[in-house]
Amino acid sequence: MTVLRLALLLICPLLVQCAGYRLGGQRPAQLTEVRRLAVPTMANRTLEPRLSSVVTNSLIKQIQTDGSYEVGSMSNADAVLKGEIIQVNRSQFRSVRSNVLRTSQLQLQIFCKFVIEDRATGKVLHRGRANGVSYVILDSNIQNSEAQSLDDAAQRMASAIANEIAEGW
Question: Is the Cβ–Cβ distance between 151 and 139 less than 8 Å?
Answer without folding.
Answer: no
